[in-house]
Predict the structure of Coenzyme Q-binding protein COQ10 START domain-containing protein.
Amino acid sequence: MPTHAEQRLIAYRPDQLFDLVADVGKYPQFLPWCARAVVKSRTETELVADLTIGFGPFRETFTSRVSLERPDRIRVRYERGPFRYLNNVWTFTPDPRGCLVDFFVDFEFRSRLLQNAIGMVFNEGVRLMVSAFIKRARETYGPPVIAATPNAPASR
């Protein structure tokens, strides 16, 4: 049952980061292990998407329902696929230096083999994923325009 919680100060506006995370259809362009993303339906407050994740010999597709609680929260609820459960929450809090992003993910695969395989690389994988979002923000919005203070450097 891998669980990961992380808080990062990122030198972009909360609305920019919210939009980046909410743009699920573009995940395969920049997220490690995301091989395919199909948004099946979308409204201003919710989307349903199929994501295909692949690592090593494993390739699995799952469906999730994503609540877009603009301006500060995105919640992902698992609907069907290889998991017993999946919970994922992004929270975006304005800060004079940018945006304080809280990221939480908790899941369990139905397959013990898959669970053991991901367990060995999970923490590094989540760090890579969060870093991929930061890199994507820079590619999408350009260099950060909000300067960090010396005591609390922003992610770049």
